[in-house]
């Protein structure tokens, strides 16, 4: 049973979760600040940024296993008391990020026009999207290094440094974009170069921090092929999990767009509210990754079980609070985004379901993070695919039945419920609690 009284784990959970939340919120500000500046250039330029941003976001989203897998692996070594091996494993994850980044530059360059076309860019928007993407490709290794470096530090039980790097990177990005676009007049290319340089600066900080840790622990920094294979293998399950999640997001948006302008507008606003709340729940999940990996690395099964219950309790409590908060602001929230009566009506219905689903989301996100921390990527891949298979026919059936935006959110609710059941069944058992420095 979930306990809500004070626990000895609370301070540790909050110590990791609060800075993680700050870093999660800081990351989307990169493209938000770009949009604010590029918007002054014209509608076509802003549209080009939007298309390029969607392509880059998809890429980063799929490569998030570099952060998650590295966190779990490093945390296990920390729990086992081997800091040298922990840093060594983190370095392997960073070398993997560099290798993937190099491959993506080579493979992505000739594919930029079809990628832009696949996102439906118009003739006026496409040239700006292609310009932004061609420049941004050179920043992909840095973007992936940031993911891996974040995973290293989280595994070392440090979420404050990633927060500081995120804030510094956002600030540098904002300054460089303002200078390159508004002062030097480089247009959308200036925005792309500003973001590339800011990401490169952030990656350099992570490299410096990890190299300092390597010197301190006496860990080698050259590539280790066995370590690279281990990192890649561990990330495969998380890659499949993430791809399945992405399918749900893409299909949901596509179905809402086919319903009509009012429906897609209401869905996007409702989903942005969902995403904002997900950042806070993801912060607990990130704490779960780091703490679970460390406890299992120390072969502390009872401690793992105890802290799992506590983090699920935090997830449920936060979900209830967030749901009540959404219900409290629901009558007034639509007025911040629209004056259209149809959009407002649909958004009010969407927000009701968003609120109801928050406690479920609290359980799902936290258990997802805990099982990632346990290195249970294969199970996560299979069950996330199962949940996606449940979602797709339900969403299409409700769409054909003219259930509207409420039906779409109902399908999302079914998807979340499926994930909660499959993750809960796994967490109740013991098979995921594999102990030791390496799973």
Q: How is the topology of this model organized?
A:
Elements: H1 10-26, H2 29-38, H3 43-62, H4 65-79, H5 83-108, H6 112-118, H7 126-136, H8 140-155, H9 160-183, H10 188-217, H11 225-259, H12 261-297, H13 301-329, H14 341-373, H15 377-400, H16 404-428
Helix pairs in contact: 1-9, 1-12, 2-3, 2-9, 3-7, 4-5, 4-8, 4-11, 4-12, 5-8, 5-10, 5-11, 6-7, 7-10, 8-10, 9-10, 11-12, 11-15, 11-16, 12-13, 12-14, 13-14, 14-16, 15-16
> What is the helix content?
over 70%
User: Sheet with the most strands?
Assistant: none
Radius of gyration: 22 Å
Name the average pLDDT.
88
**Would you list the SSEs in sequence order as H and E?**
HHHHHHHHHHHHHHHH
What does this structure look like?
It is globular, with a radius of gyration of 22 Å. It is 82% helix and 0% strand. The model has no long low-confidence stretch (mean pLDDT 88). The protein has 439 residues and is mainly α.
What characteristics describe this protein?
439 residues, 16 helices, mainly alpha, single chain, globular
Could you give a quick summary of the protein structure above?
By secondary structure, the chain is mainly α. The chain is 82% helix and 0% strand.
